[in-house]
């Protein structure tokens, strides 16, 4: 039962990943692309956590945490650049 749930979750996350990639490609505005890329990284983080739990490998949790931090900083920087036209004053 446990393996079935992991398999279903992995397949579902992969489908969501593919839909997010298509949404990033076909988005009309820059802000929608920023949000779609943020969603894409959240799905990748969820896949890393799922993989870490399935294989009992805790170092993938470190990679997920690092990706989450980088994603947050990149999203804030991209949104600020889009709104103000520059990153720093």
TrEMBL record:
What are the protein's GO molecular function terms?
sodium:proton antiporter activity
TM helices/strands, residue ranges: 6-25, 32-52, 58-79
Q: Which InterPro entries does its entry note?
A: MrpF/PhaF-like
Task: Note the coiled coil stretches, chain numbering.
Answer: none
Its annotated compartments are:
Cell membrane
Q: Which UniProt keywords apply?
A: Cell membrane, Membrane, Transmembrane, Transmembrane helix, Transport
Gene Ontology CC terms:
plasma membrane
**Main localisation, per the record?**
membrane
Provide the membrane topology annotation: Multi-pass membrane protein
Quick one: signal sequence residues?
A: none
Q: Which family does it belong to?
A: Belongs to the CPA3 antiporters (TC 2.A.63) subunit F family.
Name of the protein described by the UniProt record: Na(+) H(+) antiporter subunit F
Organism equals uncultured Thermomicrobiales bacterium
- Organism classification, top ranks? Bacteria, Pseudomonadati, Thermomicrobiota, Thermomicrobia, Thermomicrobiales
């Amino acid at each position: 039962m446990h393996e079935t749930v992991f398999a279903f979750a992995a397949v579902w996350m992969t489908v969501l990943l593919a839909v997010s990639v298509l949404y990033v490609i076909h988005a009309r505005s820059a802000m929608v692309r920023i949000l779609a890329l943020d969603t894409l990284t959240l799905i990748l983080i969820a896949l890393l956590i799922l993989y870490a739990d399935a294989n009992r490998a805790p170092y993938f949790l470190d990679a997920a945490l690092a990706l989450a931090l980088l994603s947050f900083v990149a999203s804030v920087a991209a949104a600020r650049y889009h709104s103000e036209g520059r990153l720093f004053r």
